[in-house]
Design goal:
Number of strands of chain A: 0
CATH class of chain B: Alpha Beta
Largest sheet of chain B: 5 strands, mixed
Number of strands of chain B: 7
Largest interface: A-B, 15 and 17 residues
Distance between the termini of chain B: 58 Å
Radius of gyration of chain A: 38 Å
Shape of chain B: elongated
Oligomer: heterodimer
CATH superfamily of chain B: Glutaredoxin
Distance between the termini of chain A: 139 Å
Strand content of chain B: 15-25%
Largest sheet of chain A: none
Shape of chain A: elongated
CATH topology of chain B: Glutaredoxin
Helix content of chain B: 25-40%
Order of helices and strands of chain A: HHHHH
Order of helices and strands of chain B: HEEEHEHEHEEH
Structural class of chain A: mainly alpha
Radius of gyration of chain B: 20 Å
Number of domains of chain B: 1
Number of helices of chain B: 5
Strand order of the largest sheet of chain B: 5-4-3-6-7
Structural class of chain B: alpha/beta
Helix content of chain A: over 70%
């Protein structure tokens, strides 16, 4: 009787252990699962912030991006940017937030507006002007009598006669 | 058309030369603030000497004032400090000190050693108000008008010239309005 009850108790205890074991694994699975999801969320956020910080300028060291710089201000700004991102702000919101405080200078890619037209379109204007001059020069050369490079042949002639004079000497 | 051959390149060269020459006298560290002409950011910060009391942007409404961003760890703040002390003696305009990313005890010790030119000082321990003001180096000084609008920003230490030629005339003009 006693033995029976003992084994029953043992059995029950084992089952309890079993159940507890199950519960523990379930809990562990849930915890790990959420951690993994959170970590993946963090990774996505990290990647997004990294990309964003790479196009923002550190104002203290000027030629470094916010991502690269170790300046205390860059650290603060990275923290601020992260907090804004976690609060659900878009990249554009974050850029606007920084531009409102530090001006367009924080952006490595300046916005297209009246004051930056020369910056954005100036090179193309110069390129067009260069092509124009080039074409004009080619046309004039083509119109010249006596082949493509009259100057060169006359130079050659002079050089040749000088060489002949030297050789004949 | 013949004269274009030499005068056009010369003209372009002179223009480039002009730009480069002007560039020689400009400081790339001075980034113009987009906050000029905009209302000063709202803040509410604990005072350095009376931490239980705060100062807000609203408290300064109705007077022209200077906000001087400084820190005990800032070397060039020592350069401009005597000027601020002198300015305080002249009593022309109230100067509020913003102790930027500084331990209150360090700030207090620094003011005790170097003289305290400030009407009062406020503590921006984590530099957040500094970010709102677009501060990217210490010292910086803002001129704020009666309506709470930022009118001027001095980047780097104040100089006697900057005070005499720019800041004080601006302050007087703003005080009249």
């Amino acid at each position: 009787m006693r033995e029976v009850s003992d084994t029953t108790r043992l059995h029950l205890r084992r089952r309890g252990l079993h159940l507890r074991h199950w519960g523990a694994s379930l809990l562990l699975a849930v915890v790990l699962g959420t951690a993994a999801v959170a970590a993946r969320g963090d990774l996505a956020l990290d990647a997004r912030l990294k990309a964003l910080e790479n196009e923002l300028r550190c104002l203290v060291c000027q030629n470094q991006t916010l991502a690269e710089s170790n300046a205390p201000l860059a650290e603060d700004l990275r923290k601020e940017v992260r907090e804004l991102a976690v609060a659900g702000k878009s990249d554009d919101d974050i850029r606007a937030y920084l531009v409102a405080r530090y001006g367009d200078f924080v952006l490595y890619k300046p916005p297209v507006k009246a004051t930056t037209y020369a910056l954005w379109f100036g090179p193309f204007v110069l390129l067009a002007a260069g092509i124009f001059v080039w074409i004009a020069v080619l046309r004039r050369r083509a119109r010249m009598p006596g082949g493509e490079t009259p100057d060169d042949t006359s130079d050659d002639g002079a050089a040749a006669s000088r060489a002949r004079a030297l050789l004949g000497d | 058309m013949k004269w274009l051959r030499w005068s056009l390149p010369l003209a372009i060269f002179l223009v480039v030369l002009g730009f480069l020459f002007v560039g020689l006298f400009r400081d790339p560290r001075e980034v113009p603030s987009p906050l000029i002409g905009k209302p000063a950011p709202a803040f509410s910060l604990a005072q350095l000497h009376r931490p239980e009391q705060t100062l807000t942007t609203q408290d300064m409404r109705g007077q022209v004032w200077l906000l001087n961003v400084w820190a005990s760890w800032c070397v060039s703040c020592r350069v401009e400090h005597p000027l601020l002390v002198e300015l305080a003696k002249a009593n022309v305009v109230p100067v509020i000190g913003l102790a930027y990313k500084d331990k209150p005890e360090d700030g207090l010790a620094w003011l005790a050693a170097n003289g305290d030119p400030y009407r009062l000082s406020i503590v921006d321990r984590d530099g957040r108000v500094g970010i709102d003001f677009g501060v990217y180096g210490v010292p910086e000084t803002f001129v704020i008008d009666k309506g709470g609008v930022i009118r001027y920003k001095q980047i780097g230490p104040l100089t006697a010239d900057a005070l005499r030629q720019t800041i004080l005339p601006l302050v007087r003009e703003l005080q009249k309005s």
